[in-house]
Amino acid sequence: MQDNKGKVPPHNDEAELATLGALLLDNEAIITAIQYLRPGDFYTKANGRVYEAVLNLFNKGQQADILTVIGELRHGGKLDEAGGEDYIASLTHIVPSSANIAYYAQTVLEYSIRRALLRIAGDMGFKVFDESIESDSLLEDIQQKIFDLSDNRQTWAYKVAKDIVKETLKHIEEIHTLKKEYTGVPSGFDELDKKYTSGFQASELIIIGARPSMGKTAIALTMASYIAVRKKIPTAFFTLEMSDQSLMMRLLSSEAQIDSNALRTGFFSSSEFPKLYKACGDLYEAPLYIVDSPNMKLLDLRAQARRLRLQEKVAIIFIDYLQLITFENKYGIPQWEQISEISRSLKSLARELKIPIVALSQLSREAEKERPNLAVIRGSGAIEQDADVVMFLDRDREAEKKGEEQQASPDIKRINLILAKQRNGPTGLIKLLYFSRFTKFVSYEKDEG
What we know:
Mean pLDDT: 82
CATH superfamily of the largest domain: P-loop containing nucleotide triphosphate hydrolases
Strand content: 5-15%
CATH architecture of the largest domain: 3-Layer(aba) Sandwich
Low-confidence stretches: none
Largest sheet: 9 strands, mixed
Shape: elongated
Distance between the termini: 73 Å
Strand order of the largest sheet: 3-2-4-5-1-6-7-8-9
Oligomer: single chain
Structural class: alpha/beta
Helix content: 40-55%
Order of helices and strands: HHHHHHHHHEHEHHHEHEHEHHEHHEEE
CATH class of the largest domain: Alpha Beta
Number of helices: 19
């Protein structure tokens, strides 16, 4: 193994000086430099202080030149840290113009990234000898640090409307040619997909909340089964509450339409075996990946999700359910704060993997008294803030008032799927039927009875 001790960290003095010189020569150059650089990207502390002063002046709407930069540094008590007046005055002699500011700034950024990677490697090299830290925790730590490094380096730029028009028209033409029904991953409920969401969208965090025994797992399995079995879209299902075999029992009951209790106890008719075999065959061929892990830690979930995305190309992830995820170092941290961090982490993961994540959530007891709203999500208001889409399962209270619920079969319940929040679309209500015998949801069509 190569030893890096004694080596000077990667840096480029000429690029740093050229960048600062260009900024002092041309006040407009900061508009380009700010796309790439922050004060900490400079290797030499004095250079970082000068750049910081230029940024401060820019934020105040003032022009940066030798005199204003010296004045800003003196006012902040950092003139000596920036090398003094003579050093700052010498910077304008480095380059003849600001024409190559983008090249200079990109070069400084390149070496800054290399130093950051060196720090990450050094930190990991130190931690691997600490046996109190689990290896899974080390893997999550390095993955997160590298992702943060990459995410924080996304440069911005504006586009001319004519370019966006061309790109958008091309996208519309492609959709028209392909006749793609939805822009996202379809849920299997036509009214939800066509009228409201156009499918679950990439990078979105979708929350489905309900009180116990309302069918949270059932609706997630109904969706996952449709996506994986019918549409052959790679799907991952994290089950933190029940075993993978119990989950498969539910899936087989739903797919074969065999009473779930009869399937579980074995008391079903032999004539139903062909349906069972057909359902087994369909699920056997489906790109459905089940992660059975009670007390799953957040870092383990993130690592598994990344692996499934990379190796199996999963296009959507279901999590049953959010409040069962274990937060690392939870001792002394309030429950609401743990849930908040888990919620933020899931949203970050959805953005990182560029796929929708559907997380089930418990609701507080208030949801039993009246129609659920965003305030009844159990554990933390952060879930409401982080989620792009929030849906609730609720009994059909209007049907109950009219006595219609009593006229239906005891195995069939009328359930409202309430779309309470959608960051990029409308909200509304979809009526569903829940077949408890098969742990399956279907769309409610009044004309079909």
